[in-house]
Structures are given as C-alpha cells and as structure tokens.
Amino acid sequence: MTIIAVGIDLAKHVFAVHGVDQAGRAALVRPSVARDKLVELIATLPPCLIGMEACTGAHHWARLFMQHGHSVRLIAPKFVTPYRLSGKRGKNDAADAQAICEAVQRPQMRFVPTKSEAQQAQLMVHCVRQGFGEGTHRHHQPHPRAARRVWPHAGSPHPCARHGR
C-alpha cells in the first residue's frame, strides 16, 4: 500500500486529503483533516507526489511539504474542474481532493510554479499598493479591512475569519 499521489483540497480550517496507490486505488481518504494535523499527516507518508489547487496559501503548504521530501505540484483551479465527478456526489471537499489527485497524475497537466517567501512578500506589497484608492475614504487611504486581502499570502487565515467577522 505505497501511496504514490495525494490530492489536498485546501480550506481555512479543515482540509480534505485523497491518496492513491500504484494500482490507482484509494489508499488514503480523509475527508476532514484539521489544519494543525495536516503537516503531521503528510510527514508520516513516504515521499510522494502531492497536488493542490493553486491559491495564495498553497505556496506556503507546498514549501512545508517539500521539507518532508515530497514533490509538490500546484494546479490552476480551471484545470482541475474537468476531473470533478458530477452526479450524486456533487461538489464537496472530498470530491475536490479526489479530482486534484487525478489531475496531478496527468502527464500533460500544466502546473503553477511554487513561490518563495520573498516572492510572496513582494506580491503582498503589490496587493497593498493596489488597495490604495479602492476604499471609500478620501486621500486614497486603504480600506480598513484591507489586511484580510493579503493575509492568506502568509499561509494562514485572517484571525477574524474564524469568528465570522
């Protein structure tokens, strides 16, 4: 039961993980993994291919998983969509993780390069600068909640996100 590929559907607090063995059978199905347990779970796996949809927090997770010897590939969400199973199951986190796992194994798939911390910091500066003038305040001041827009670039959700503010 050697897991060769894992698909992870990222979220704020609970993640879905789907892994397959060499025969293509589901060997690791975890529809609900807490944020603080994800690295622990991935660290216990032998080095394998890990796929995630590319988003601001995915780069942070990719760097963490690479430290444990895994090969990480980020996929643009539009390339994962064709692999989602439609029908009874519908769209949910577990189905998304399975679709990502399927998509990451395709030889012709196009991947997004993982950004370094410095590249993400530069991107955060651009996002903050872009926010000037978008708010309703005079003198081009940033909107009071502008920090929420750049917070995910650091790999964690905004602290207010868990309280619904």
SSE blueprint and pairings:
Blueprint: E1 3-9, E2 14-21, E3 26-34, H1 35-44, E4 49-53, H2 58-66, E5 71-75, H3 77-80, H4 93-104, H5 117-131, H6 147-150
Parallel strand pairs: 1-4, 4-5
Antiparallel strand pairs: 1-2, 2-3
- Count every beta strand, where a strand is a DSSP E run of 2 or more residues: 5
Question: How many strands, what sense, and barrel or not for the largest sheet?
Answer: 5 strands, mixed
CATH first level of the largest domain = Alpha Beta
**Looking at this structure, what is the CATH superfamily of the largest domain?**
YqgF/RNase H-like domain
Quick overview:
The protein has 165 residues and is an alpha/beta fold.
Could you walk me through the main structural features you see in this protein, from its secondary elements to its overall organization?
This protein is of the alpha/beta class and 165 residues long. It folds into 2 domains: 102 residues, YqgF/RNase H-like domain (Nucleotidyltransferase, domain 5, 2-Layer Sandwich); 47 residues, no CATH class. 33% of the residues lie in helices and 21% in strands. It has 6 helices and 5 strands. The protein has a 5-stranded mixed β-sheet. The longest helix is centred in the last third of the chain and has 15 residues. The chain starts with a strand and ends in a 15-residue tail after the last helix. The relative contact order is 0.16.
